[in-house]
Amino acid sequence: MRRAVLDRLAKAHEAGQSVVLATNLESGEQAILEAGEPGEFCSEDLTEAVAAAARADRSQTVTTDAGEIFLQVFNPPLRLAIVGAVHIAQALAPMAAGLGYQVKVIDPRGAFGSVERFPDVALVEDWPDDVLDREPPDARTAVVTLTHDPKLDDAALQKALASPAFYIGSLGSKRTHAARLERLGSMGFGAADLARIHGPIGLAIGSRTAPEIAVAILAQMTQTLRQGAGG
After folding, report:
1. By CB neighbour count within 10 A (0-12 exposed, 13-18 middle, 19+ buried), where does 9 fall?
2. Do 144 and 216 contact (CB within 8 A), yes or no?
3. How far is CA 227 from CA 119, 121, 155, 182, 222, in A?
4. From the centroid of its chain, how far is CA 153?
5. Could you tell me the pTM of the whole model?
6. What pairs with residue 197 in β-bridges?
7. pLDDT for the residue 97
8. Distance between CA atoms of 94 and 101, rounded to whole angstroms?
9. pLDDT digits over 173-211, tens only?
10. Cα–chain-centroid distance for residue 50?
11. CA distances (Å), 138 to each of 76, 87, 168, in order?
């Protein structure tokens, strides 16, 4: 592996960037490719394969006009920012951690977040917009708001919509969500932006209890991560 390739991989790791190392198995030629971006010896078909491999977190070999190309995926960790230290968050946080997410529960209301209620979970007692300013969501980040309080949820959603977060979801009824979209629309977010918010949150599987709602949220997050926004 060339020094330039190693340096590029190191920089991508430091920046939390998702890249794919493409190696031509016949010529040995290598290139660092970003998902969705054309690169060296990268045809349109290969560009699509790179994006699919990165989304699936799965390295693979593909056949191109240039020969057999091995795509080795280097993804940063998945992250989940949960706004609201509520009952659903108590179920969602450990489930998400079990799926490999780095989970952070954000709630400025000190009475809600505690080590007893959230063992082994990173708790941040601060305003969500401040937290997401310090740690901006990237394309491997999901943002979930659960408080029903516009002061908290809307603040987080504004930051999430301004980021490449792969999943944005917000708890609430259809009526609550409609009011939420109206507020965000008045702040300058367009239809395409607002369509990124999954609300009411989670797949429609008839969830009733907090753990069941957490399952529905994680299922929708997984669907979006692996299949894209269109499901």
Report:
1. middle
2. no
3. 32, 28, 28, 28, 8
4. 17
5. 0.83
6. 168
7. 97
8. 9
9. 999 999 999 999 999 999 999 999 999 999 999 999 999
10. 18
11. 10, 26, 12
